[in-house]
């Protein structure tokens, strides 16, 4: 089981990196840049293929999704190398040894923070968003239709009449990737989800961050190397957010964010080579398009990072624009004008109807003013928001402060602090602001979700912490040079190793204040994270292991027949987890205008099918032949209790062994499957 799981991780990386690397080389990117930015470019390839095949009504098999474009891109790469050799990369180089370092560190951290915590590869986080994720992946696998623009739990032709909610645009690139990988490896949907997420967090994100750090700290190998410790020991991202929501598509987009920012920056570091600049810009555009289909807020995340960089570049340039014979606009004025333009566009975009639901999403504040400031300063962004425990990471916070002060003191690096400062202020607003209008403008593009904002701040804090760690290592070197070991050539490398070895345990195990239930106590970031992760993956409600086993037995008995279910008993996850064609695959939408008349009649009056012709017509029109009735005792202890209304489900809840029109065909542990005889 675990061998299949790790094989799935490897397949995920192949599916992203092979077509992504070949696309980068086809566009003319240098080998190292193409390698480190392969994942977002590969995501673009997979999304394009999914959409093209969906529009052409061609089955989206793994061979078509990955094999075909990889073969075409290989030919294109060979032709380009033959007739249009790539130009020399004018951007800062990335040392090959650092790739190995980030890979090893990422894989080790991935095991410690995720794989080693999972009770089994099939364990999954039973929270609200999981319903959509799991069912949509299964629907894509069954239909072989993988449009990244339409995430639906009802994609097969036979399920066309059972949807209780209308389908529409939903960024589904992550679901397309999971479905393609699952079809290839033939492992469960839940195991695939864990494997894909592990690949993104343990490999894609570290390599993406390596590309960014190597670009903003040219020639500073030690700073970049220490980025392994800085990027992989902050519990909010990439690890903690995996237990929240779960918002897996946003995790994928954030994992690729550093590489997306870097591709744009490196386009303007090519020493006047227009062809090289165009190659990087084309790669940035395509990679960003792929990332947008993971989650649209990645565009605004890119903007938060790149806007300060653009302002800094304009302000330090010699660019001047003439206005008539005398007046000119100098570099500083251009930088100011761009900043004003950026703010206008940012605010104006919140008025676009397509963003209305996104920016208006409401989250309650969870910290007072001083508490919110402490949360930001102590890197405990979610502290006080239940059920998202978060302990203070005091040692990384101190190192971040050192790095930030040192970066501000230098004119050429001052801008690096600004993206983090913006994200930190956004996090402060997410913690304590009660002004919904202001929250919508500032953080609405992330649903005003504190965990997403905290993850953004975490990503942008990595350069500051890396620089602070390097300064600590340099301070240690200066102390050693006062001794007889001052000429030791290996001193800088040894200092970096020692600093990292001291930093990692202090970052994870130095205790800070954390919330436990409704009280606060001293706890290490690691202990707090682990308790949250275990709770996320170990509970078995609303879908218990016994219920899963029963639905698998039902699936073996009925095959692809449609089964009417009561979703709040856990069977809402049944389709995605077991493949059983459950009729109800959502928690919401019942009683709204989007519900079909068949659904309304079935959930309210199914028990009366023997005497009600309209019920018989509804059941026949959707093609259902069975009814699943399972225990719902665990319902009151889960997150679904606030949306369950028993009165809406009497059509199913009232069915017993004596109800006319039904025949009991399977029973285990009190769970029952009835065949509908009234329509035979």
Roughly what fraction of the amino acids lie in strands?
A: 5-15%
Q: For the CA atoms, what is the radius of gyration? A: 27 Å
Low-confidence sequence ranges = none
| Secondary structure: helix percent | 55-70%
Average pLDDT rating: 91
Structural class: mainly alpha
Record field, number of beta strands: 8
Distance between the termini: 42 Å
Description:
With 680 residues, this protein is mainly alpha-helical. Helix content is 59%, strand content 6%. It folds into 4 domains: 294 residues, no CATH class; 51 residues; 188 residues, no CATH class; 132 residues, Rossmann fold, CATH 3.40.50. The protein has a 4-stranded mixed sheet. A hairpin with a 2-residue loop joins strand 3 and strand 4. It starts with a helix and ends with a strand.
